[in-house]
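FORM 7B: Structural annotation worksheet

SECTION A. Query
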Amino acid sequence: MESNWARILMILLVCWGVYTPSFAQQEVTAHAKLDAVDITVGDQIRMFIEVQNKGTGKLQWALFPDTFNHLEIVEKGKIDTVQQGGATVYKQRLLLTGFDSGLFKVPAFQFAVIPAAGDPYTVQTDSFLVAVTTVPVDTTQPFRGIKNIIFVKADNTMLYVGIVVGLALIGLLLYLFLKWRKKKPQPEVVVPQEPLHLRTLRLLDELDHQKLWQSGNVKQYYVSLTDILRAYIEERFKTPALELTTDELLSKTHEHKEMNRHYDELAQILTTADLAKFAKAQPLPFEHTQTMELTRNFVTHTQPVIVETNQPAQ
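SECTION B. Predicted structure
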C-alpha cells in the first residue's frame, strides 16, 4: 500500500517538473474541441481551434493536412482574430468527415511560437478519438428485386398555363406596337444659340459681380478677365489668342484690320493685366474698373455684323 502511494507521489512530482516550467514560460495556449465523436460514414464533424496569445511573441499557425488517419478535412474556415482581456484570441473552424468505418484518431496540431525574448517553443491542441460507423443493415430481411419503370400520367396543367401566359404576352406586345405607331413624333425644340458678343458680355458681367479685386483677389480677377477676352478674340477673329503671349497677340492684332483700330485699347488691357498677374505692379482701383470698361467696349465695337438678305417670294 505504501509503495503504491510512493509511486503516485513520484508520478506527480515528475509531472510537476515537466509541465510547470513550460506553463511559466509559455504565453500561448492552444485548445480544440469537437461537436461529435461518433458519426456515420459520410457525416461531418465540426472541429473548433482556439489559440490564445497573452504576450507579444509571433505565432505560426499549424498546418492542417487534407487527410489524416482515414479522416478528411472538407472545409477550412478563415482564421478570426479577437481581443479578450488583454490577450489576442485566434479561432478557426474545420469540417471533418470519414468514409471508412473504424475508430480513428484526430492528432494534436502544433503551433510554433517565437517569443519577444527567450527561445522558440511549440504548443499543441488535444487529440481525439472519432468512431465512424456504417449504416446498420438488417440481414434477416430478404433482398428485394429491382422494380420496373413506372410510367406516370403527364399533367398538362403547366402546359395550359404556359400557353395562356404566352398569348397574354403576345397581346401586350401587339398593343404596345400599335400604340407606338399611332404616337405622333414630337417636334424638336431648337434652342437658339447665344451670339458670341452677348455671351462674352454676360461672362464679363458675371465676373464683375464676383467682386474679386474688391476682396483682394486682384490676380484672379485679371486672369479671368483676360481668359474671357482671349476666348472672344480666338472665336471672333480665328486667332489662337489663348496660346499666345501678350507680345505675340499684340503683333497679331496688326494683321487684322478691324482689331488694329483697337490696338491701343488691347495693349492697355493686356499690359495692366500682366502687371497685376505677375506682381510687377498693383493697379489702382480706378484701373480695375477702367480695364473692365475697355474690354466691354472692345467686344461691343467688334461684334460680328449679321447681314440679312431678303429672299424673293417663290
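SECTION C. Observations
Residues 9-24 have pLDDT under 50 and may be disordered. The first strand starts at residue 28 and ends at 34.

SECTION D. Sign-off
Analyst initials: ____
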